[in-house]
Amino acid sequence: MVTKTDGKSGRKTAGAADKAVVRALLDRQKRTYAAEAGIRLRNTPAPLYQALVLAILLSARIRSEIAVAAARALFDAGLRDPRAMARASWQDRVDALGEGGYRRYDERTSTLLGKGAELLLERYGGDLRRLREESDPKRALMDVPGIGPTGADIFLREVQGVWPEFAPYIDRKAVDGARRLGLPTSPARLNGLVTGRDMPRLVDGLVHAALDKPLADEVLAAADTT
Predict the structure, then answer these.
(1) CB atoms within 10 A of CB 221
(2) Do 22 and 203 form a contact (C-beta atoms < 8 A)?
């Protein structure tokens, strides 16, 4: 790993090296998964629900680009809030998922999305800000059909920019990416390498690095030349 030049040996300090890696990663990670899915995250009901749908899709054993495309297809079909999702027919949801290429899990996921939307309407009036007020929001998230520990992690890492009490939120896959890039794995230390608004993008970049070794190698090579 590259290590800020100390002026004597010509080597970089560890802190400067970490920042070089992060800059190289963020140069390649222009948008978060949520942004790629067309979600403009705000602390309002519809974008929060859309982030939850994306977390459900991403937590399946399927390529992330397919999950993102399926989320966009659902939203393009008008299924952007719990009420619309619950009112849609099972087949409508299957068709939208298929349009996004999410065919392996389309039928099961259609059922989960319908049941999850109904639960959110019954328990929170469709407003995830009310879930945020629970004593243990992460545990409450896992009551939603289709959301397990992985899905809860994905949701919280995506919304940490608008739910700052969870920031910095680094899930296990992001830790894997940090290790691959030789970066610190402590949430506090990673948070110190970026401005607050860039933390969700950094975390998603780390996930990309964990899933894509050639990308990680490219990042490290770019950091070495700075």
Answers:
(1) 10
(2) no
Count CB atoms within 10 A of the CB of residue 31: 11
- Give pLDDT tens digits for 47-98: 999 999 999 999 998 899 999 999 999 999 999 999 999 999 999 999 999 9
The answer to whether 114 and 93 have CB atoms below 8 angstroms apart is: yes
High-pLDDT (> 70) share of the chain, %:
93
**126 by DSSP, 3-state: which?**
coil
Closest by CA to 55, choosing from 164, 127, 141, is 141
Is residue 12 classed as helix, strand or coil in its secondary structure?
strand
2-34 pLDDT, tens digit each:
344 454 444 456 688 999 999 999 999 889 999
Q: Determine the Cα–Cα distance for residues 194 and 192; give it in Å rounded to an integer.
A: 6
Query: Which residues are bridge partners to 12 per DSSP?
Result: 5
Q: Reduced to 3 DSSP states, what percent helix, strand and coil does the chain have, rounded to the nearest 5?
A: 65, 0, 35
**What residues are paired with 5 via a beta bridge?**
12
Instruction: Tell me the pLDDT tens digit for each residue of 132-163.
Output: 999 999 999 999 999 999 999 999 999 999 99
**Alpha-carbon separation of residue 67 from 72, 103, 134 (angstroms):** 9, 10, 28
* CB environment 169-206: b (16+ within 10 A), e (fewer): bbbebbbbbbebbbbbeebeebbebbeeebbbbbbbbb
First to last CA, the chain: 12
Contact 190, 184 (CB under 8 A): yes
